[in-house]
Design a protein that fits this description.
Elements (H helix, E strand, L loop, with lengths): L7 E4 L7 H12 L7 E5 L1 H5 L5 E3 L6 H4 L4 E5 L16 H16 L6 E3 L4 H4 L9 H8 L11 E6 L2 E5 L9 H4 L2 H17 L7 E5 L14 H15 L3 E6 L7 H4 L4 E4 L2 H11 L5 E5 L5 E4 L16 H16 L3
Parallel strand pairs: 1-2, 1-5, 2-4, 3-4, 5-12, 7-10, 8-9, 8-10
Antiparallel strand pairs: 6-7, 6-11, 11-12
Length: 333
């Protein structure tokens, strides 16, 4: 008999947001899919308060035994009951602990991938949390001893579009100075390697967006393409990586254009996220490239405004679970 792969693990995120509701809804949608078993790292009582059948397990190898009948939870309890829609710093340490435990389970081979429900960084900062977000914290947790932390790269995926961000949450005025030849080359190389390892593409094709309108139009509308992006593309091509561009961003995302590449590298947040969310608003997935573990997340926030109302849609979390499953299988987990 073939030994089944380890389960996925899902960190519950901010318990005052929509994470617990989405987790229950995702389990209900997937509980009959034995290949998509996951265990929650979080507070079992919060999930029971949502009228979910919950089974507290001691080890992850118990996940498959209960998944079809109850939501398996590795219970790391909160000190206080959360109030939906009322974020509270009292929950910050458990939230961070759930993420850390999820990473440790993946590193130990007990879980084959981590799916993270949304957090609010502002809630965590009072505890000394010093990272801009989930992604950077995960990279630190994946540091190998005293060596450098791996370089995490954010990919967003929806339908047939994958976009990778060269810069993330920066004011637009700071983006040009943040783009360097070495930085763009590193992001493209990590993307190329991930497309091969995580998405099983033998010969990945990458499209690179220009920063300026019309990709700078030969330097008449900005020089970033000439000074940074073209040298980066040339260096990548010399290294055997197929890269198109830099291309005008306004012609990169229609149906015919998307068929010419496997992933697009975009220079700033909205350049990549606007077309992706227009294409599929509800089912986008955040995938972290460049880590030794598999990590995905829904492409939305904590939803405090609708927490506790029952309105939250689980599409993105379900898509994130499916993506973590597929990536882990492509890695041979």
């Amino acid at each position: 008999m073939t030994t089944p792969p380890p389960p996925l693990v899902l960190s519950l995120g901010d318990p005052c947001g929509i994470g617990p509701e989405l987790t229950v809804k995702a389990w209900r949608a997937l509980k009959d899919h034995a290949a998509l078993t996951f265990c929650v790292v979080g507070d079992a009582r919060t999930l029971r308060d949502l009228d979910a059948p919950v089974t507290v397990i001691e080890t992850l190898d118990q996940t498959a035994d209960v998944f079809g009948e109850a939501l398996p939870v590795l219970d790391l309890p909160l000190d206080q009951r959360p109030r939906p829609g009322k974020p509270d710093g009292v929950h910050a340490r458990p939230i961070v602990g759930w993420i850390r435990t999820g990473v440790e389970l993946c590193q130990a081979g007990q879980a084959r991938g981590l799916v993270t429900a949304p957090i609010a960084k502002s809630v965590l900062y009072g505890t000394g949390f010093k990272f801009p977000g989930h992604t950077e914290y995960l990279a630190e947790l994946c540091r190998d001893g005293d060596g450098p932390a791996p370089t995490p790269v954010m990919m967003l995926s929806a339908r047939d579009l994958k976009v990778v961000l060269a810069t993330i949450h920066l004011p637009l005025r700071d983006v040009p100075d943040a783009l360097t030849v070495d930085g763009v080359v590193e992001i493209a190389r990590i993307t190329h390697d991930a497309l091969k390892r995580d998405f099983a593409l033998a010969a990945p094709r990458i499209a690179m967006a220009g920063l300026n309108p019309h990709a700078g139009e030969d330097g008449t509308i900005g020089r970033e393409e000439i000074d940074v992006l073209i040298p980066a593309v040339e260096q990548l091509r010399r290294g055997g990586i197929e890269v198109l561009g830099p291309l005008p961003a306004d012609t990169m995302f229609h149906d015919d254009a998307r068929a010419t590449y496997d992933a697009a590298i975009c220079m700033y947040h909205d350049q990549g996220l606007v077309p992706l969310k227009t294409l599929d608003f509800w089912s986008g997935v955040n995938i972290t490239l460049g880590l030794p573990i598999v990590r995905t997340s829904p492409d939305h926030g904590t939803g405090f405004a609708i927490a506790g109302t029952g309105q939250a849609r689980p599409d993105s979390l379900i898509a994130a679970i499916r993506a973590a499953d597929q990536i882990s299988r492509n890695r041979g987990a």
